[in-house]
Amino acid sequence: MLDTTDPASVDPAIGNALPAGIHVTMVSGNKKTGPITTTRTQSGTCPSTCRLLQEGACYDLGGRSRLHRDKLDRGAYHLWSHEQFFSLMACFTRVWRWASGGDLPNDPRHPCDGQTIDKAFLVRMVRKAQSLGQVPIIYTHKPIFNVSNAYERNKRAIRAAMKAAPKVAINISCDTLAQVDRASRMGFNTTVTLSSDAPSRLVTKGGQVIKGCPQQLSKSGRRFTCAEHCKSRNGLPICADPDRGYTVGFYTHGNKTKTYSKLLKIWNQ
Ligand code: SF4
C-alpha cells in the first residue's frame, strides 16, 4: 500500500505527484522571510479550489519559486518523512515558515485531491512548535468554505490545532473580502490577496479590518523581513500572531498582476 508519509513511496500510476514528504531549508536566503527555517511541500498539496492556482496568479508559479516548485515535484530535493520532520523541528530557528510553496499535507485517507488537511499532522506540528517555544508562520489555502466536501473536515482540523496550540496562528488564505468575513466569523485568523493598488488599510462589509503586509508596503530598496522587522503589537511577526486582531492583506504581484487585480476588483464588488 502507498505510504504517503514516506518519501520513497511513489505511486507508479501518477509518479511523484503525491505529497510524499517535506523539504526543509534550515536557514533560508529568502529576501522576504529573512534568515529562518522554511519548508516546502509538493504541489499536490495545493487544493484545486485555490483561485490563485486556477488563474495562474500564485507567486509560487513564477520566478525562482517556480524553479523550486518544479524541482521538488521532480524529486530533485530531499524530502523528509513526517516522522523525520518532527525530529528535525528541534533544530529549526525560533521563527520559521511553514510551506513557502505547497500547502499542509493531505489527509492520507484522501491523498490525491489536495483538499483535505492531515489533521493528525497539523495538530502534532503546532503542538510541538508551541512546546519548543517556536513561532511558526503558517498559511493554508485548503478549503473551509462550501466548495468542497472536505470543508467540514478542514475546519475541524484547524480548530483542533488551535485548541492544541493557542499561541500558534493558522492563517486561512482567503481569495475575497467576503471569504475574510466568513472565515473571521468562524473564529479563524485570515489573510487575503488584494489588488496591487489596494490601500494599506481597508474594512470589509462585515467590519473586518485588513492591513497590508508591511514588507510589501516598505519602500523599495529598504530591507524588511518577516523574521527581523515585522512586529505585531505583541512583538511577533504579524502573520504568526493569533491575537493580532486583523486580517493581513497581500498585494498581488508577478506576471499576472494586472489580470488578477482586475478579477479581484470584480469578485470584491
Ligand atoms: S505581514 Fe509580516 S510576517 Fe506576514 S508576510 Fe508580511 S512581513 Fe511577513
Summarize this structure briefly.
Helices cover 28% and strands 17% of the residues. The chain has 269 residues and is α/β, with parallel strands linked by helices.
Based on Cα principal axes, name the global outline.
Answer: globular
C-alpha-based Rg, rounded: 17 Å
- What letter string, H or E per element, gives the SSE order? EEHHHEHEHEHEEEHEH
Write down how many β-strands occur, each being a DSSP E stretch of 2 or more residues.
9
Structural class by sheet pairing and helices: alpha/beta
Tell me what the structure shows.
The protein is globular and about 45 Å long. Helix content is 28%, strand content 17%. The protein has a domain at 22-190. The protein contains eight helices and nine strands. The chain has a nine-stranded mixed β-sheet with strand order 1-2-3-4-5-6-9-8-7. It has 269 residues and is of the alpha/beta class. The N and C termini lie far apart (48 Å). Bound molecules: iron/sulfur cluster. Residues 137, 213-215, 226, 230, 237-239, 248 line the site of iron/sulfur cluster.
Which key features would you list for this structure?
binds iron/sulfur cluster; alpha/beta; 17% strand; 269 residues; disordered N terminus; globular; 8 helices
Write the layout of secondary structure elements.
Layout (H helix, E strand, L loop, with lengths): L21 E4 L11 E5 L9 H4 L8 H12 L7 H7 L6 E7 L17 H13 L3 E6 L10 H14 L5 E5 L2 H9 L3 E6 L6 E3 L5 E4 L1 H4 L29 E5 L5 H11 L2
Parallel strand pairs: 2-3, 3-4, 4-5, 5-6, 6-9, 8-9
Antiparallel strand pairs: 1-2, 7-8
Helix pairs in contact: 4-5
The protein binds iron/sulfur cluster (SF4).
